[in-house]
Amino acid sequence: MPELSSFMHLSLDGYYCDPRGDMGFAHRPPDDKEWSEFAAANASGGARLLFGRVTYDMMVSFWPTPAAKQMMPEVAAAMNAMPKVVFSRTLKSADWENTTLVKDDLIGSVRRMKSEAGPDMTILGSGSIVRQLAEARLIDVFQVVVNPVAIGSGKSFLSGPGKIDLTLTESRIFKNGNAVLWYGPR
Question: Coil, helix or strand for 51?
């Protein structure tokens, strides 16, 4: 069975974006070699990427562009080549290379994908999708990047699904101050 993981950047005060939906606090300069190597290795995992509409719109506006290919060529190539699924009731089409649009039944669709042969799956960002799938207990790994910044207010990670007991399975600290934490269900 494919494993489902969530990859989320958080501010130190627990927000994945500010009140306007901006997550610029998580961006690192392309000359941050240690972080760039981690991002490239993470993107080379061959997973199927899952997005909500807001994150999809943000990703498609950057990764297929010449700027992305120049700034982070390995990550851009991987992001464009990987199979992607966007869950949205409002999108008319999903034109990014290798993308499938699913308009309804998030929980049922992910349960089906988890029961079929195929690559592991990773949700990038997509806070509302993560909340719903966490509540349905479908996420196997939470990979959280804690960024060394407090943004004061915004959208809180995992607010709403009730108590979820997790176990820390791995961690890594970067020179830029980021801490990557991997959690699994207890």
Answer: strand
